[in-house]
Amino acid sequence: MIAIPVETDKLNTTLSHRFGRSKYFAIYNPVSKSTVFIENVYAEDKIRVAENITYLLSKTSVNKLVAYEIGLKMQNEASGKEIQILIIPENLKTLKQIIQLIKNL
Amino acid sequence: MARTRQNRIIQQPPKVLGFNPIGFYTSKPKTVCLNLEEYESIRLLDYENLSQEEASKYIGVSRPTLTRIYESARKKVSKALIEGCKIIIEGGSFIFKDEWFECKNCLCKFNNPVKAEINCCALCGSSDIVQLNQAKL
Fold it and tell me: Model ipTM?
């Protein structure tokens, strides 16, 4: 399962620039090719954001996360849970573009 | 003979290879080369707001060494800003904390936390990937 930070919970959404502060995460299942959205309830928190988000994502069996950039704490938490980090270039702007690339896997 | 320099630990590769000044200049701008450990010192101290003690542990050097690396980084960045130089981010004595790869097809960079054999891009599946290491940057 792949976690993608997004601005809204619609399939035509744009990606969020800040992983930990994104409003939602799109969780894409490459096997069933389905997408579910989960709200990032920790987006406005001041402490333990990385830890809480990693826990939230691990409950949905996420093993990859996509981001434009990833902070140090989030990177450490992801490494601890063996979640692969994918840093994408700025020309990829929408969820549909990411899903299209993943479908080719 | 001087002691060989210990490799500095870099958490993740930089997003860009450098910066170009904007504006009018009559000749090609001079270039400032920021090495990876200098880039990492700016990232940890100024962007991630770590203390020097914390940042030195991440980079794998003593605090005074980190201070020297950071001072060098700031001098180079200030020279680039004031004199209108290009900044190129490359080189240095470093190793990445994880194995990092770059896909030449989709330009995604990805790591290998489970130390599996990597043959293709984790995003698009292309086999046109390179492993990032000191020789490549």
Answer: 0.90
